[in-house]
Amino acid sequence: MIHQTRFAHTVTGCAVFGRAVFVEVFRNGGYNRPWRKPYGGSSMPRLFPIFSAVFFMAVAGAAGLASAQEGTLVVHGTEGATVRIDGKIAGTIPLSPLNLAKGKHSITLSRAGFRSAGERVYLRSIHGATVVLYLEPKTRKGAALRNLAFPGWGSLYNGKRREALGYLALQTALAAYAIDQNRRFGDNRNVYDEAESRYAAAVGAAEIEETRAERDAAYDDLSSSETKRNGAIYAAAIIQLLSAVDGWYRFPFAGNDGARIVLAPSIGGGDTSPAALAIRFRF
User: How far is CA 118 from CA 83, 85, 87, in A?
Assistant: First the structure.
């Protein structure tokens, strides 16, 4: 608003000055008066005031036209939050009103320990626009539940990108290994079923011994692939639980939540009135 006021004063000053020059020239006949140079020479019409008036009034008109292409944007929100307009940092809250070009603009507020928020507005030159965005503080519960749902999500929520990538890579590797072992388990199951059928159909002692060995070998492969698959699944589950615990206990924004103890005198007056103890838990 300060920049807009100064701009309006500038435009008004140019227009008033130009009008005053025109009045002085045409009302008082100044355009017919000769203007003699200080160092001598022939006289010439006093065209300089006319040119000056035209110039200043043209500047005022152009400036007024330019001002019609701008609008005032007022942003309110969480104190200390960084304001980005169309991806560029404009300042922090509290923020002075801004003069922006008419049209659509994207406003985003972000601050450490808070969830980012944004809004798109269409700015008009006459009315302008006001955006109010109050950020929601991050909590331990939010970090833990996100890591429990998908390891690494809560770490990203806490602003720990490398840790989030580590959890993601580990879980992806375990999931791929479990899928591969499950595929092997299916193949080994088919081999075992065929070996079991041959063993059941064997008649001679030598054939029975041979098919039994094949069946036992197929069973060992089947058990091995099943054990590896289940081990990868159990490891992924353990990492998921550990990531949830990690998101809770290593929450970096301790001031946002947790137990608070507030001591306040109870209503009733008198020196003998007891103090009220309020413990507020916020997750």
Answer: 10, 10, 11
Last residue of a domain, which of 137, 155, 175? Answer: 137
pTM beyond 0.90, yes or no: no
Smallest CA-to-CA distance from 93 within 123, 62, 133 is with: 133
Give strand pairing partners of 106: 120
Quick check: 114 and 136 in contact, CB under 8 A? yes
- Percentage above 90 pLDDT, the chain: 38
Between the CA of residue 127 and those of 74, 100, 136, what are the distances in Å? 11, 13, 29
CB atoms within 10 A of CB 271: 4
Establish how many alpha carbons lie within 13 A of residue 73's alpha carbon, considering only the half-sphere containing its beta carbon.
25
Maximum pairwise Cα distance, the chain: 140
Burial code (b: 16+ CB inside 10 Å, e: under 16) for 1-14 equals: eeebeebeeebeeb
What tokens were used for 276? Answer: 């009220």
Residues in the chain: 283
Both 152 and 216 in a single domain?
yes
CA distances from 123 to 107, 167, 169 (A): 12, 43, 44
Domain that includes residue 6, residue range: 2-67
136 or 35, greater pLDDT: 136
Number of C-beta neighbours around residue 63 at 10 A: 17
Degrees, nearest 5: CA angle 129-132-137? 155
Q: Total structural domains in the chain?
A: 3
Tens of pLDDT along 169-205?
999 999 999 999 999 999 999 999 999 999 998 888 8
Is residue 152 within 8 Å of 243, Cβ to Cβ?
Answer: yes
Nearest to 219 by CA among 191, 179, 197, 199: 191
CA atoms within 13 A on the CB side of 107: 26
The amino acid that residue 190 corresponds to is N
